[in-house]
Structures
1.
Amino acid sequence: MKVSALQQSYLNRRSYSFRSSGPLDSSSDSAVKSPAAIFWLVLHGLCCLISLVLGFRFSRLVFFFLFSTSSTNFYASPFRSTAELANAFDVHSVLSTNSITNIELPLLNKTVANSRVVVGRHGIRIRPWPHPNPTEVIKAHRIIERVQKEQRLQFGVTDARTVIVITPTYARTFQALHLTGVMHSLMLVPYDLVWIVVEAGGVSNETASLIGKSGLKTIHVGFNQRMPNSWDERNKLESKMRIFALRIVREKKLDGIVMFADDSNMHSMELFDEIQNVKWFGAFSVGILANSINTDETADQKEEEETSRMPVQGPACDSSNMLAGWHTFNTLPFAGKIAVYIDDRVTVLPRKLEWSGFVLNSRLLWKDGGDKPEWIKDIDMLAGDIESPLGLVKDPSVVEPLGNCGRQVLLWWLRVEARADSKFPPRWIIDPPLEITVPSKRTPWPDAPPELPANEIPVMGIEEPIVKHSTKTRTSRSKRRS
Amino acid sequence: MEIWRWVFIGILFLAAFVVKIEAFKQGHRQSTERISGSAGDVLEDDPIGRLKVFVYELPSKYNKKILQKDERCLNHMFAAEIYMHRFLLSSPVRTLNPEEADWFYTPVYTTCDLTPNGLPLPFKSPRMMRSAIQLISSNWPYWNRTEGADHFFLVPHDFGACFHYQEEKAIERGILPLLQRATLVQTFGQRNHVCLKEGSITIPPYAPPQKMQTHLIPEKTPRSIFVYFRGLFYDVGNDPEGGYYARGARAAVWENFKDNPLFDISTEHPTTYYEDMQRAVFCLCPLGWAPWSPRLVEAVIFGCIPVIIADDIVLPFADAIPWEEIGVFVDEKDVPNLDTILTSIPPEVILRKQRLLANPSMKQAMLFPQPAQPGDAFHQVLNGLARKLPHDKSVYLKPGEKVLHWTAGLVGDLKPW
């Protein structure tokens, strides 16, 4: 009988754990009501009433004052005051006044000899300033760095090769934006790095001051042609600049893995780990972040769904993980709405295969590197310009697919540029400080570009190209609240 | 002569230098380290051939029928009692001849009476155990021969053979008097506690090995979380004011470190719990209502250094595994300084702990895989039993001698089951 009553009370509990405080069981266990029990019941009722009036359980206060000098289990270390604690648990106390255990000794001395662990209610110890200490945070970060270094030594690449990064750039409004993004990614790379920055229009202080902040080993060269305004010409010039950089690699006999980091791309940190696996010539998948909002109302639902997936350029493999072909960019959905000039307000599209999706072993470029495979063309012997690094190989099937055979997207491509005539303060320092501010409504653009048809919704989302990288890198932890 | 002496000394230095370099290189590249506890290098011992266990055939109302009533017993953290039974039935250490047995096992599932929420009720367990012992003592002579001193029982419940989930009540009850001489294999372990008998074997709580296997992530994923914990800090349902649950230790962790970016602690129940543990350097394993928790097993499997906050706890297989070298022990009174304690551990010590944790025999010893594999928790239990052999002469009673009293214990426990 008694047992089933107890079981009933458990089944009625809503909480996960069914542990309850002592006196519930003891009160239902004892069948005989002694005067002492009646006295405790009366006292218990009285204290319930008082707690109800006061709004919090005062038993802890009472015992705190009564026993604060006792040596047993009130710890001397700083302690949140009971009143504060009681206030904090106001809500819960009001609920619990209806339940049992208002009067119970907070310190049940049920210990075995020699044990320093006591059963019963304990204080919650809080130190005087319970907030992070900066020195400790630094120490913890050092520990994490050391642990990660050990992980890399054990599970990462054994003989890491230098990464040679080639970036074509030129001084313009958005250069600081893009180049800083790439620079920070490169600063996080755990391997040795050489950064070759080729600048159109000659070496400028803008670029030099930007890349000087990186602390990386950089080779900053100028290319004496200015960047043209149309995307086509631009791509051609950039290819020329990249080949120029490859010639530098060959001259200096740099040893390592050559990768192309355009300054507007976003790189995943895993990319740098993955390219260490390349033997001679590798390719990986590049995600294209061209804005695929098809703004005519004639596009039906199905087409919207299809184009809302991110298009990916890169190697395609068959079922035995051998290179079978290439995924290239499908320009059909964008027919008619492709940007020609740099300040067109429509989508900028990538070429069939972007340079940045390829990596090669720098020994392929050396004049007489000894064991060069015979399928590589010599750069000096190139007839014209090549549109993608595939032009360097005689047989495209020797390309090694990286990133789990192209299934992993390690790089995201996006092109956003300000208007060709937009101005920006040199080195982004406003000196002397501005004195007069004029509301922008009064300053029209000097020469507006040719207006596009009225049913075009201007492309908005592309203005924020710098997106957080993949979450595999150290990200700041968001604070969790209980 | 002088020159030769100097040459000799020079050669000695050179040799020492070379040896040191070699040792340094070797130590540096090592990814695991051998584990040897106070009983020696016994983690990989093979118990087969070192002992013989006789399994009593009890009527199915003690085991099979109970399991049939509630299949959830196979998945909760007390499932070790069922899997141990199954393991022993088909193990080479089992003998069908009780005369040559060193140990006797009674398969009674005392932790399988579950509430709708899945938590075991221990109220019938003492009576069940008594009834089982009465059965074996009347049908076989081996219990009376030693009054149970060469028998072992699995009692994985919260406080072992005290058979109660609440510590005060469990201490009041004490260990079931009939089990005073038997060896108890239990999850609970706390020094100088009534419910831990001298000579008990502590085992880890059951954690499903398959489930943990499916959540493994590549080992090269960098560990970027410093301290990780997911679980309750206040048990609002049963201890609304705090101070009772976990002796206030979990609440202290929350109050002191809730805004500390190094501590990834919360009460959420994420689906990526196992993956997150593999990305953390330290995992907190504080006590709850009982000092032990499956978090220790999870931390060991996922290579996260366990930070044990439970005064006087006895960890599983404490004689075979040197837990002080593997985990970090923090007194409950030192919880407010947890960040200082953890950041002041030198990196070489941390790397060594990670190497010890990476040892596959360490991970095996914490698991109860089906079917059993060498070095797993089943074998560690058998090793522990084998280390207690040969039995002392005092184990065998003279005919007619009685040590235990049949009617000892609480009145409620004497009712037949």
2.
Amino acid sequence: MENPDTSTSTSTVRRNSKRPKYSKFTQQELPACKPILTPRWVISAFMLISFVFIPIGVATLFASRDVVEIVDRYDSACIPANETDKVKYIQTPGDKPCNRTLRVPKRMKPPIFVYYQLENFYQNHRRYVKSRNDQQLRDSKEANSVSGCKPEDYNNGSAIVPCGLIAWSLFNDTYSLSRNNVPLNVSKKDISWKSDREHKFGKDVYPKNFQSGGLIGGGILDPNIPLSDQEDLIVWMRTAALPNFRKLYGKIEVELQENDVIDVALGNNYNTYSFNGKKKLVLSTTSWLGGKNDFLGIAYLTVGGLCFFLAMVFTVVYLVKPRQLGDPSYLSWNRNPGWH
Amino acid sequence: MKRYAYINDDGPSQDLYRDNRISNTKYTVLNFLPKNLWEQFSRFMNQYFLLIACLQLWPLITPVNPASTWANEREVWVVENGIKKLIQAQDIRVGNIVWLRENDEVPCDLVLMGTSDAQGLCCVETSALDGETDLKTRVVPPVCMGMDPVLLQKIKGVIECPSPDRDIRRFDGNLRLFPPFIDNDVCPLTIKNTLLQSCYLRNTEWACGVAIYTGNETKLGMSRGVPEPKLTAVDAMIDKLTGAIFIFQVVVVMVLGVAGNVWKDTEARKQWYVKYPDEGPWYELLVIPLRFELLCSIMIPISIKVSLDLVKSLYAKFIDWDEKMIDRETVTPAHATNTAISEDLGQVEYILTDKTGTLTENKMIFRRCCISGVIYGNESGDALKDTELLSAIETGSPDVIRFLTIMAIGNTVIPVKSKNGAILYKAQSPDEDALVQAAAKLQMIFVDRSANILEIWFNGRTIHYKVLETLEFTSDRKRMSVVVKENDTEKIFLLTKGADEAILPCAYAGQQTRTFTEAVEQYSQLGLRTLCFAWRELMPDEYHEWSLVFKEANSTLVDREWRIAEACQRIEHDFEILGVSAIEDHLQDGVPETIETLRKAGINFWMLTGDKQNTAVQIALSCNFISPEPKGQLLMIDGKTEDEVCRSLERVLLTMRITTSEPKDVAFVIDGWALEIALKHYKKAFTDLAILSRTAICCRVTPSQKAQLVQILKSCDYRTLAIGDGGNDVRMIQQADIGVGISGREGLQAARAADYSIGKFRFLTRLILVHGRYSYNRTAFLSQYSFYKSLLLCFIQIFFSFVSGVSGTSLFNSVSLMAYNVFYTSIPVLVSVLDKDLSEETVMQHPQILFYCQAGRLLNPTTFAGWFGRSLFHAVVVFMISLNAYTYEKSEMEELSMVALSGCIWLQAFVVTMETNSFTILQHVAIWGNLVAFYALNFAFSAVPSSGMYTIMFRLCGQPSYWFTIFLTVAAGMGPIFALKYFRYTYRPSKLNVLQQAERMGGPILSLGTIESHPGTIEREVSPLSISQSKSRSPVYEPLLLDSPNTRRSFGAGGTFEFFQSQMRLSSLYSRNCKDN
């Protein structure tokens, strides 16, 4: 028993190595900034928000008001008055022409966008929104991949291109516009996203077996034009998130003057009658914020106004009833030692 | 069941017992999968996730496309077929003879057969087993003594040993060698003859032994045990909230499911483009509800479990790393063994503490003594400097010399000569150490213990004693004796020391013990530990007759402990009482302050000790545990019979009820005997008392009673913390919600069993007030925030379903949904582990603030409802604003989804910012960096042509309306919350807010402190309590304290046995030498 000393010293060394390294992180002593809500700070924050938000609100509201918009609902107007069964009427094959007249309320600068607007149409329905196959649309070699397209996947055993409910229900009303009996050119070029044309829809993918089954849904496609050039389809297949939506039909590149009268020759083909959906034709200019939408402007003004109001209330309360922060008399255990 | 280990028998008997492989005791290869799965799925949250996972596999309804044993391979020398072989330790079989060299680790439990030492001794270091760093001697059983090493290889015989157990201080076996080897006598074996697994052989060239327990059946393996998993109160609350959310989810799913089916049958059939088939499969009606179930599954965040586990392990690391919790003396850092229960530290309501070694230093110093009625050391407070005593030694007063002799040799201390000639003592108990040291200073120097011969120098003379028998200390006998023969005179003496109640009744008829009783009383009122010394000369005949009985008792297998106690009883009587020694045990630094601070924090203290009542009360007084009169009041529960205990209990309960309204510190004192009766027959009354009482002192309690007390408090739904340092605290530590072990002088047993180990009692303040409190606050925020962000996204999905024909369409794509939970929202909140609502100093000055954690003010159904409301409000804001800003020609699915998602991400960044109290650089990086990362990641997704999000993010970020929408969302979402928070903070501040404000305004925070400084050392506390003053205590106090003459049970030689028998059952495996006397 000659080395009890060495054994204790080795154990000290061992314990020493367990000792942690010192750093501000391990000791939870990182320098920290601890803000507190002082009245001055809070009131200025609210003031600042209101001073920023109110001008933005005014600007957006003006932008929205600058947009000229013509909306014409035509779904019920385009049913002949003697037709009682609208659904039967729309489902009969053949042309169902209809004429509408629009008056331009204000000068409209090009480009003027022509939209069709559908209401109560659930493009976001779960069965519908997934019923497509992106691979098939992009690649001609993938013509047979129709997974997810049920029930519009095969027609008599051969794959449908483009498959799925979305393509099958393609919107097919047509509009031809004329001003003073002079046709207005509605350009259908570049109405879809460039990225979609170039990367989502193949240049060598041609429609096949489309709308050739027993039940025809919506529009038909020219089997000789590749999908990347079928811009109506590309626009349609960008599904809308809401049951009321607008989709671009075309662009007018000429200026429309105030009180111009525009005649619209409609091909009324699309069935929204079975679910009481509305169909509207929309002509609209655009601003730096997009189409006509007062929401942002009103919301900004409201929030800015409320912030200003709150800032005022807090200021008044602060002046009328000042309160010292951190007043120790609020600690009840300083008043009553038996506090628990 | 007994086992028989056949020595060197290579036959089939070897296969009766398991081999020496050690495995993870929790699992085996076979039961791993079912057992683990069962454990996992007994948690509600996991069952839920299993259900969701199963549903995800069903494509029709999914809304978006979507094992140990370790070897023991060290090589050891083993005799096989008479030849020494080197084999792997895992192949050792019971009965093998294993050879060890110096500094080898013992591979399994062995019975020692031979050593290099001529007297059959060897030294082992047991620190890995019990944490005691002193070397222990082990001895070869007598029959094998001096056997030739060659012969040992061929030895045959049988060892009878009990079934494997975990008691590392006890082994009752028998050894019988087979005929070719010596006689056929049965030789008793004790723990002294064993080498236990994980010990190291020291200072001995070689040793060999027979394997008796192997693998997991060794004493170490058995004591490893399977600790119960501890669930914190916070975890329980989170589970409860998860359950509530689940019910909410089921309701939502059912409502939406019915609505979906109704819409389908009324509306969707008309929507021709959806092409609903007329006839659906049989489960048609279930499809929509199940779709919603999956859509709503994000309501319960999977990430919460991962995040919580992560931050919990960081809390534990912070404890390990804490510089301020390193004990400078022994360089012991704090350690969190259990990483999962840090929050509970902040919710502790009761602390049950051991006394010796926990409150005190367990560093014993001999202070006073009373020898044959003369009291030494009272004037100077140190008997070693008492001139009277020194002159008594000079003159050779026989009583004094005998007293010193017992101090020097009545023990199991081993003297070790160091290189410079000084003598070091290796003592197993600090009391014995103190006595031997003191004797050495009083000229009675214990020099050497070789085999049975003890050598003492006294006044330059060398005296030799031969140890005939050692009657070891047990906590039931409360005394230890040695039978020695003086070599010169051939006289045999019985030298005994022990607790007063175990010694004084055994005095010879006619001896006056009153002076000793008074001395004991006086010393214990000073908080000193007392031991009585007695002796008797034995006639050779008497000794020989008795030694046969003792030997037989020593070799019994059944009830050996009791039989030995009975045998000891036969010789320990008719003592001549020599005197009383008083040993001081210093209070640890900072104990009174720690207790004061923690009591201010609303934590109740119970002291559970094996010590005498008076000593315990005095220590309690000196460490602020109880207040002196008139502020404090002590109520005594005592009695020997059921009726007495019952009456006393009821009286105390009544007093307690009356005084609850008064601002008075009322504490009750109970001793082990009364406690046993109270727990057995009056459990309800005692539980009532436990609820009423903020302080209690339980003296003379056994380890199992300590555990029972913990159990009682736990059954009243209190969060308990048990703190102790010795083996006798292990059960209480394991039983409590939180076990804290002090890695101190008594070894590591308690620290090993504990959830947290600290070096000193005073670190408890920091452990609870800093680490516990922060952990609770952080977890409370993190868990509720996790629910908030999941609910936020889920509510948006639910709202969206109302505009998508209740068909279960997901607004968000699968990538976003996944990244939202695991990436976008979990990283900013993880850095909340660095958040500090108040600085450490403020908390220390105002420990009362812990109340918020104890009462669970930060995580409960009410606060959760707040977060629930917030997520609903934010969902409405995000949904309404994105929907209205992106209407008509802009309402493209992918775009709208990203606008809504961006809104959520921005809002959650601001919510984290607002709920953070202190920003370090890491928090800024995580919160704002996460926003940047969100855009970077989505730009990356938008650059992949095949992804659904192709070009979306680029388009959005180029639109002014996108940014206007986001800013509007943030302002509308945060504005009201910010205003409300400001209003509450300023005009309805909680105490927490007031302290925050005070701290950050740099105001008069220091003057707020109501904590006076306290005198820290025991001297200043004890000296005013000296005997003369104690008599002048107020009358209310005296009857209550002195109401205890009947607590000191007097039992004569006859009555002791019943006491032993009943105590035997109570005594625990962990009873510790000399700890309780």
